[in-house]
Specification:
The chain has 250 residues and is an alpha+beta fold. Helices cover 58% and strands 17% of the residues. The chain folds into 2 domains: 95 residues, no CATH class; 154 residues, no CATH class. It has a 4-stranded mixed sheet. A hairpin with a 2-residue loop joins strand 1 and strand 2. It is globular, with a radius of gyration of 22 Å.
C-alpha cells in the first residue's frame, strides 16, 4: 500500500537547539498523473491525501518537531509518453507551526475545486440544485473531475505562493525611512492576498487575477528602492481611487 500511494515520510535530521533536541520530518507526496488511478473505492491521490492529513493530525502534539511538504509530478504538462521526473517543489518549508499549513493548504485547494465544479454544473444545467437528482448528478461530476481540478488549482497556488515568499524576503531586514510607509502598504496588500483559506475564498476562476496581483506587488518591491518618492505618488493615487470607489458602493 505504501508503494501504491507513493507518500513518503522521511526523518531528515535531529539537532540540538539550546537544551532541546529538534526533529524534522519531510513529507513527500506523489501528485503525478498515475495517482488518478483507482485504489479500491477511491483514487490513489484521495487515499494519499487522507493518509497525509491523518498522519499530520497524529503527530501534531509531538514536542520539538518541525515538518515540511514536498510534492512531485504536479507542475509539468502530461503527455501520453512523457512526464518530467525532475518535477518537484518544496511546497511548505520546515517550521514549527507547519502542521496546520500542510493540512490546510491541501484542504483549501480541494474546497476551491469543489466550488468550481459545482458552479460549472449549475451553469451547464441551468439549476441551483434543489432536487435529489440534481444533487446526485452534481456529486458524480465532482467525484469524476475533482483530482484534475485540484491539481490545476495547486499549480496556480504554487506559482503565487512562491512569488509571495520572495516578496516577504524583500520586505525583511533594515528599512530606510523613506520606504517605511511603502513597505507597510505592501505588507497589507500581501496579507489581503495570502491568508488561511484564500484559494477557496477567491475561487478558481479568479486565481489568474490573484497571481497577477502578486506579480504586480513583486514588481513594485523591485522598483521601490530606485524611486521611493514616485512609489509614494502612485500609492496616494491608488488610495484616492479606492476611497472614491468605496463611496460609490455605499
Amino acid at each position: 500500500m505504501k508503494k501504491i500511494l507513493s507518500i513518503a515520510f522521511i526523518i531528515l535530521s535531529s539537532f540540538s537547539f539550546g537544551q532541546e533536541q529538534m526533529t524534522r520530518i519531510l513529507f513527500i507526496l506523489d501528485a503525478s498523473n498515475s495517482m488518478n488511478a483507482r485504489w479500491g473505492a477511491q483514487t490513489r491521490i484521495d487515499a494519499a491525501k487522507e493518509l497525509l492529513a491523518k498522519t499530520v493530525d497524529d503527530i501534531h502534539d509531538i514536542p520539538n518537531l518541525e515538518i515540511g511538504l514536498r510534492v512531485y509530478g504536479h507542475q509539468s504538462p502530461i503527455t501520453a509518453t512523457y512526464q518530467d521526473c525532475n518535477d518537484t517543489k518544496l511546497e511548505v518549508p520546515f517550521g514549527k507551526d507547519n502542521f496546520g499549513q500542510v493540512k490546510a493548504l491541501i484542504d483549501d485547494c480541494i474546497f476551491a475545486g469543489i466550488d468550481a465544479l459545482v458552479s460549472d454544473y449549475c451553469k451547464e444545467h441551468d439549476t441551483d440544485i434543489r432536487t435529489k437528482a440534481d444533487f446526485e448528478a452534481c456529486l458524480d461530476k465532482v467525484r469524476a473531475d475533482i483530482n484534475d481540478k485540484v491539481l490545476n488549482i495547486a499549480k496556480q497556488v504554487e506559482q503565487g505562493l512562491t512569488l509571495a515568499h520572495q516578496c516577504q524576503k524583500l520586505m525583511k531586514g533594515n528599512v530606510p525611512l523613506n520606504m517605511v510607509n511603502a513597505l507597510g502598504d505592501c505588507k497589507g496588500h500581501l496579507s489581503s492576498l495570502v491568508f488561511p483559506g484564500f484559494a477557496s475564498y477567491i475561487g478558481e476562476a479568479r486565481l489568474d487575477d490573484w497571481n497577477r496581483y502578486i506579480k504586480g506587488l513583486a514588481r513594485r518591491l523591485e522598483k521601490l528602492p530606485i524611486d521611493p518618492h514616485k512609489d509614494r505618488q502612485h500609492q496616494l493615487t491608488i488610495e484616492k481611487c479606492v476611497n472614491e470607489l468605496s463611496l460609490i458602493h455605499i
